[in-house]
Amino acid sequence: MSPARVKISLFSIYLLYAILLNSVGAVILQSIASFGVTKQDASLLEAFKDLPIAFVSFLVASSLPRLGYRRAMTLAVAAVAAACLAMALIPAFLTTKLLFLTVGASFALVKVSVYSTIGLLTNDAKGHASLLNLIEGLFMVGVLAGYFLFAAFIDPAQASSTAWTRVYLPLALLAAANAILLAVTRFPPPPAPGEARLAQDFKEMLALLWRPSVIVFAISAFFYVLIEQGVGTWLPTFNNEVLRLPPAMSVQAASIFAAALAAGRLGAGMILKRMNWYPLLNICLFCMGALIMLTLPATRGLEPRADISWFNAPVAAFILPLIGLFLAPIYPAINSVILSSLPRNLHAAMTGLIVIFSALGGTTGSFITGRSFARFGGETAFLFSLAPMAALFFLLWLLRRVINLREERAPDVS
Questions:
Q1: How many CB atoms lie within 10 A of CB 376?
Q2: Can you tell me the distance from the alpha carbon of 227 to that of 224, in angstroms, rounded to the nearest whole number?
Q3: Which CATH class, in words, describes the domain spanning 199-301+315-414?
Q4: How many Cβ atoms from other residues are within 10 Å of residue 313's Cβ?
Q5: For residue range 194-211, what is the model confidence (pLDDT) as tens digits?
Q6: Do the two domains 1-186 and 199-301+315-414 of this chain adopt the same fold?
Q7: Cβ(173)–Cβ(48) under 8 Å?
Q8: What SS3 state is found at 276?
Q9: Where are the domains of the chain?
Q10: How far is CA 160 from CA 154, 155, 165, 172, in A?
């Protein structure tokens, strides 16, 4: 087995899914223009992507070691290659829905497999946290690449054309290349799954919810994703309605948030090799709160300007998205902490719970921020994010305490 080749496989797969999972906004925009669907119908694409992730994770996460992580990822990217090819050859809204259904369902297999494989490649908690942050950081690099890739295939002069669907040809090739790379890469064997049946696999996953550390982690992950999705989803609207930026510039400015997330995760991957996760995450939460408290007052009373540009835009347009720099390390770090505290044969089941609670937190965060935005305005909606940040301060302390108590009672648990 070559650990370097295994890591390259994981990096490449996550890059592919970063582009596809975060293309929903661009695809919704183009579907309305090209396929003549309503905004209400186009908005269903988000559900076609997210619901299969949670559903498939619940169904198969704990039983994936039986199939094998490499085999599961190979099946996933092969299905995505076929779906991308179909989208390029048969452009239609039905094909689009099937594409995101395939992407969501297959990502559940990929995320569980990737997270579980990380546990097999690393020997201690710091190494686990570092590699997980690096992979999640590269995911955000893929998000940024996706913006430019889709933009390159969109012709503003032919808004109703389906020519933009040609973007799925290189994506199909990337997926096929991933399948080939997986086929020729030898992965570390998963833990022996035993002879339990599917019903027993479900019981094993649900039994994890009785562990205090898992309960605290699940609530922590829920609040983290609530913050990330609440800010990330509504930042373009905030830029437009509060900072008074033009629509196109509002979207471009929101990409700073994705870039900050990428930089934060890649940087944390290096820092966590030398620093304990708990003080680092508390520093991050403090900086996030400080950015919000310092930036939001500067957004009051702004008026639309005809000559607005990057050179005279409100400073908040550049500073507020930097929340992503400090938000970024939290999710991979707490995932690593909980996975490192459990035996490796439970990593697949735990990752299934991670995906499920993350999906619930993302949906809730977007909903709450949207409702608050409509009722109280963008400044107040973003100010409300201080509440889940405060909750995370307490939950991180509780998570560290519970895990330390567990290690004191069973120091041999890895």
A1: 12
A2: 5
A3: mainly alpha
A4: 17
A5: 555 555 656 766 777 778
A6: yes
A7: no
A8: coil
A9: 1-186, 199-301+315-414
A10: 10, 9, 12, 23
Token reading at 87: 């989208």
Kindly give the interhelix angle for 386-409 and 277-295, rounded to the nearest 10 degrees: 170
Closest of 310, 348, 340, 319 to residue 194, by C-alpha? 348
Number of residues written out for the chain: 414
Number of H helices and E strands in the chain, helices first, is: 19, 0
Phi-psi region of 162 (alpha: psi -120 to 50; beta: other; left: phi over 0): alpha
pLDDT digits (tens, 9 = 90+) for 96-120: 999 999 998 999 889 888 888 887 8
370 CB contacts (<8 Å, ≥6 apart)? 233, 234
Q: Give the number of other CB atoms < 10 A from CB of residue 274.
A: 9
Residue that is written with structure tokens 């680092």 in the block: 280
Class of domain 1-186 (CATH, top level): mainly alpha
Q: CA separation (Å) from 342 to 125, 176, 211, 402?
A: 11, 34, 10, 13
Q: Taking the model in full, what pTM does it have?
A: 0.69
How far out from the chain centre does Cα 205 lie?
22
User: What's the CA angle centered on 316, arms 313 and 321, to 5 degrees?
Assistant: 115
